Amino acid sequence: MDRFDPAQPVFDLSGSSTVLTQQICDVESVSGDEGLLADAIVASLAGAAHLEIIRDGDTIVARTNLGRAERVVIAGHIDTVPLNANLPTRYETIDGEEYLWGRGTVDMKAGVAVQLKLAAELTDPVVDITWMWYDHEEVSNDLNGLTRLAANRPDLFAGDFAILGEPSNSQIEGGCNGNLRAEIRTFGLRSHSARSWVGDNAIHKTAPILATLAAYEPRQVEVDGLVYREGLNAVGISGGIAGNVIPDEAMVHVNYRFAPSRSGEEAIAHIHETFPGYDIRIVDLAEGARPGLDAALAQRFLAAVGGEAKPKYGWTDVARFSAMGVPAVNYGPGDPLKAHADDERVRVSQIEDCEAGLRAWLTGAV
Prior knowledge:
Blueprint: H1 17-25, H2 35-44, E1 52-56, E2 59-63, E3 71-77, E4 90-94, E5 97-101, H3 105-121, E6 128-134, H4 145-152, E7 161-164, E8 173-174, E9 178-187, E10 191-192, H5 207-215, E11 220-223, E12 226-229, E13 231-239, E14 245-246, E15 249-258, H6 264-274, E16 279-286, H7 296-305, E17 310-311, H8 318-323, E18 328-330, E19 345-347, H9 348-362
Parallel strand pairs: 3-6, 3-7, 7-18, 8-17
Antiparallel strand pairs: 1-2, 2-6, 4-5, 5-19, 8-18, 9-15, 9-16, 10-14, 11-12, 13-15
Helix pairs in contact: 1-3, 3-9, 7-9
């Protein structure tokens, strides 16, 4: 193949998944600018006669239609957060381990590379497979490619089990915590700060809210054999008008990560119970997802990958599949702690392990 050109990319899917990761990462695709990468994915799969290719905006679906008794959906997003002098990619060796360094290597183009390579190569899998590569995951839900695809083609989500290639150190992470954001407001009376006694300071009234958060002891909740850690934290605070004015309003922005045993409505109720009497506005709510490991397909997958399944503490799109009745897990190369980091880097051995685990499971080798 000619030297790879990220400005006019077509991927060589016969090469290693690590080289493919590097090529995919070097095609810049910050949220809102995924078109070139989406074009390259379609072009690279053009010769795959075993796949039906469907495009919705910059979301690409490739699926087999072999009449298998079971269908698996395997998805990954193709966008990244903004760059910060971390492209093009490069290789690094740290403590004897080889890493691929650069934006998107962890979140989550290494997973996309593994999926894309297997999509091209697995012409006779033991299950039918729906591969999804979608845009706008790193921004608001209304822009998310899966949100749009679910509205336009909900039939494409049909399956018995789903895998999202979010970074999980190439180990299975089941389900995910739910995510709630709330604005808790306090109110007072404006006055000149030289005569503060005639006013009522709304910022001072946030002190009990902050004290409650500082003393809060989050739960650890076992759900279907996995222990999820919750968290309730202030993530922002605002208030104030001018340097000589007693403020009449202040707001504490609170983030609640709740175990998937608790519904969104129950999470809202918990916020009101924890902060009684306050003006509370729920500004974002995403349901969690149970682990999804009790299905027979999931058990076979766990056997193929090996290791011990862990909980996913952050929210991911597995919750979207769970809400549609499809049990789902996270499985992809990369340390989640390096997602979005300026020194984002993925261990090469994890890319290889992820490919081997998926290949063994999808071909029935394990």
